[in-house]
């Protein structure tokens, strides 16, 4: 379903028919970018490019889809016949996933016959917008708790199934230890984490019986949920049970808090565990967490070793969308520019150059025309990844992308590392080349 | 992918293994509800029940999934063998989709052997949470503009693919005229709408040439996008072209505004179209709209006939998650209750009774135990929909659910119809039965 060619906006098809009628098949250059960062974001982290390349490589209409389109009466048979052979055969440049990026910087550049390049707009935005939203939110959590175990718990509140799955990938890319989502383990090789539900405790008449039975069933790496009734009373039960569990070979790894004042409970539970001879049992916390709450817990010295983060993370609740756009920048060798009020775009095929200092820390970016010379000391963020509709290399292992994301965060300029609103920090400098400004002025003088 | 049995949280599987080890297979009652409404919502509208029933009817593990689980080393072979025959064979009660509901009211009640009832938690919340979020947001738009053409334009900013598709369904259910998402037309029979992109205009050297070519390609029902360069200048071009288009049999239905001050542009464009002999050409607007902006445009008398609503709608941006929960309420004939701080749930299998006045307008709801007698004048919102894992009736056509949603909105009490924060209106009365309160007190006195 997620990769059906019909998962698109109707206008992509009607425009495709118009291009067919007009015999317009020259090469178009489209670029995907975010116009302006959300007010609560100081940087964005790219994700979703592998999903985009998968989509582009596999895009086609099935016979059933073409039959259905025929039945709508909206399209002429000759056009629908042409869709039997419709494939994406264009070239793609992209930033590497895990790269930090900023407003107006193209993260993806598509060059293909205009129909193909246009048609993929809806799904490309749909993927990159969401995956980058979540990678960014996850990166902010990683910056808030760089040495904690962070786990994505957000499948249930993610916006339906594909979001839950891709959120797990984006979080792992950004530096999370893993996800509770099992399918993310199967599809992406992401480490999968899990504890137990309150219902399991409640289904047993006694909490300690539930602890004992669960530990016996999963002895290798046990996390016990201790907030169903009374958190500290449950911690005391864990202490009392520990010798018997140890004797049976159970590895009691941690306890989980999921409600109440997490800092206060963590301190009390830590004291109970330590006094009970369980200094190695870790405390894992969950419950309406985000980067801000985690920062507060850590600033308060709460003895919490890991965090399960759900709703706020997988919905990017404080910034649930990016101002993402996919715009025509050139057609048939001529640069093009959208000039709608407040939505003007920079014309032409472009490159983004990043200049770094001696330690590799980004100093400034330059958005320039792709054929302008490299600025001194800058390196280009957009790299060729697909030619003629085929990937130039096999998909990069997630581990490599994750290492790249970690390096990006390690080099992130200090003001961008803080979780506050963008307006409260000096913005990262993103410059526009003289060549690009000149071209834009020239286009604005053209008749339309 | 969206319906893989592995699209779940790891703990669902580890608990299932524990229940298997403990030979715990008695009947459990779980209920899905929203604890507290978001601060910006005065009611919620239910959606996603058909997707839940599809999931329950088709749930199974494939051989490949079981092999993968085996390879993780987390599960014992006897347990994995038992999963070959794993199916959902329980009973389900649900509110009808399109029904308005409130905090703590179960919208779905599952009764099944505890493993089956527990396992489905993650996906059931994932579906009902999202679909109800969007149906609610769409219903608010419908209340803001009851006589306007409302179209879902939000696929690209929805959180990945399934969200885009299910959002289209939820919007149509709630009263939208349709969606731009083509797949929603194929899968759900939802009317599909579309216009043209700025890129199409820009790919032509002259805007009027683009208008003419597009109209020739799609003559039956043309909407021209007029904000690419200068909105009023484009409207004047439309007027100039209109006689030639009419002579060629083109039905010029509307023009679309997508940027700038929509009210001001709409007034100027309306005047140009009227003066140019095109009083029947409608004005359609889009661009960062939601129920609040639409209300402002309508209050200002902006001559806009229809709205394309995207990002704010399909991300439910001002309330991107519900405080949804799926809780064990009874096991093996005994009521159960989660007592975690701030997250206490009402125990036992329940029913929600709605009392209405002579015009059918809801007056109050009563949450009661399922075996308590009906309150005078109340009718039960939870109805049986599945028995032994099979639907009791074929899926209800979306048209019927849509009519039900429309009736729900027509009867909605006046304070709930306004888009302001919940705190600024008297809350809708939701009462808890004496029987339920007594049971909760009894459970709280039990040892744990």
TrEMBL record, chains A, B:
Q: EC number(s) in its UniProt entry?
A: 6.3.4.21
EC class, as a word, reads ligase
Post-translational modification, briefly? Answer: Transiently phosphorylated on a His residue during the reaction cycle. Phosphorylation strongly increases the affinity for substrates and increases the rate of nicotinate D-ribonucleotide production. Dephosphorylation regenerates the low-affinity form of the enzyme, leading to product release.
* Reaction catalysed by this enzyme: 5-phospho-alpha-D-ribose 1-diphosphate + nicotinate + ATP + H2O = nicotinate beta-D-ribonucleotide + ADP + phosphate + diphosphate
Write out the coiled-coil annotation as residue ranges: none
Region of interest (Disordered), residue spans: 338-357
Q: Which InterPro entries match?
A: Aldolase_TIM, N/Namide_PRibTrfase, NAPRTase_N, Nic_PRibTrfase-Fam, Nic_PRibTrfase_pncB, Nicotinate_pribotase-like_C
Pfam families, alphabetized: NAPRTase, NAPRTase_N
Pathway stated in the Swiss-Prot or TrEMBL entry: Cofactor biosynthesis; NAD(+) biosynthesis; nicotinate D-ribonucleotide from nicotinate: step 1/1
**Keywords (A to Z) from UniProt:** Glycosyltransferase, Ligase, Phosphoprotein, Pyridine nucleotide biosynthesis, Transferase
| Family, per entry | Belongs to the NAPRTase family.
Which NCBIfam families does the UniProt entry name for this protein? NAPRTase_put (TIGR01513), PRK09243.1-3 (NF006696), PRK12484.1 (NF009131)
Report the protein's function.
Catalyzes the first step in the biosynthesis of NAD from nicotinic acid, the ATP-dependent synthesis of beta-nicotinate D-ribonucleotide from nicotinate and 5-phospho-D-ribose 1-phosphate.
Q: What is this protein called?
A: Nicotinate phosphoribosyltransferase
Organism of provenance: Thauera sinica
- Record lineage: Bacteria, Pseudomonadati, Pseudomonadota, Betaproteobacteria, Rhodocyclales
């Amino acid at each position: 379903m997620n990769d059906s060619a019909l998962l698109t906006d109707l206008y992509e098809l009607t425009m495709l028919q118009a291009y067919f009628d007009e015999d317009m098949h020259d090469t178009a250059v489209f670029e995907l970018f975010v116009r302006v960062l959300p007010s609560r974001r100081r940087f964005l982290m790219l994700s979703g490019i592998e999903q985009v390349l998968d989509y582009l490589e596999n895009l086609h209409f099935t016979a059933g889809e073409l039959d259905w389109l025929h039945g709508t009466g909206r399209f002429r048979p000759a056009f629908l016949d042409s869709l039997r052979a419709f494939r994406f055969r264009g070239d793609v440049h992209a930033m590497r996933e895990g790269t930090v990026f900023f407003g107006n910087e193209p993260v993806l550049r598509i060059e293909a016959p205009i129909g193909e390049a246009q048609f993929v707009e809806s799904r490309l935005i749909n993927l990159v917008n969401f995956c980058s939203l979540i990678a960014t939110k996850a990166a902010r959590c990683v910056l808030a708790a760089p040495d904690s175990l962070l786990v994505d718990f957000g499948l249930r509140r993610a916006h339906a199934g594909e979001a839950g799955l891709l959120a797990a990938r984006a979080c792992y890319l950004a530096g999370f230890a893993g996800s509770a989502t099992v399918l993310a383990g199967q599809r992406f090789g992401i480490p999968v984490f899990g504890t137990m539900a309150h219902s399991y405790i409640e289904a047993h008449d006694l909490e300690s019986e539930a602890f004992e039975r669960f530990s016996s069933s999963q002895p290798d790496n046990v996390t016990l949920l201790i907030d169903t009734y009374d958190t500290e009373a449950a911690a005391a039960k864990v202490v009392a049970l520990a010798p018997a569990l140890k004797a049976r070979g159970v590895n009691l790894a941690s306890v989980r808090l999921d409600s109440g004042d997490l800092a206060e409970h963590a301190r009390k539970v830590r004291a109970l565990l330590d006094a009970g001879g369980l200094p190695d049992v870790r405390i894992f916390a969950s419950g309406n967490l985000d980067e801000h709450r985690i920062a507060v817990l850590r600033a308060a010295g709460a003895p919490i070793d890991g965090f399960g983060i759900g709703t706020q993370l997988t919905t990017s609740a404080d910034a649930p969308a990016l101002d993402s756009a996919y715009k025509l920048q050139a057609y048939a060798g001529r640069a093009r520019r959208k000039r709608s009020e407040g939505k003007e775009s920079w014309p032409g095929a472009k490159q983004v150059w990043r200049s770094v200092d001696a330690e590799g820390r980004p100093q400034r970016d330059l958005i320039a025309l792709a054929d302008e010379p490299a600025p001194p000391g800058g390196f280009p963020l957009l790299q060729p990844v697909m030619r003629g509709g085929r990937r130039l290399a096999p998909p990069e292992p997630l581990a490599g992308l994750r290492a790249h994301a970690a390096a990006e965060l390690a080099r992130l300029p200090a003001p961008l590392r803080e979780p506050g609103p963008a307006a409260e920090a000096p913005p990262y400098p993103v410059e526009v080349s003289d060549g690009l400004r000149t071209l834009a002025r020239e286009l604005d003088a053209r008749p339309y």
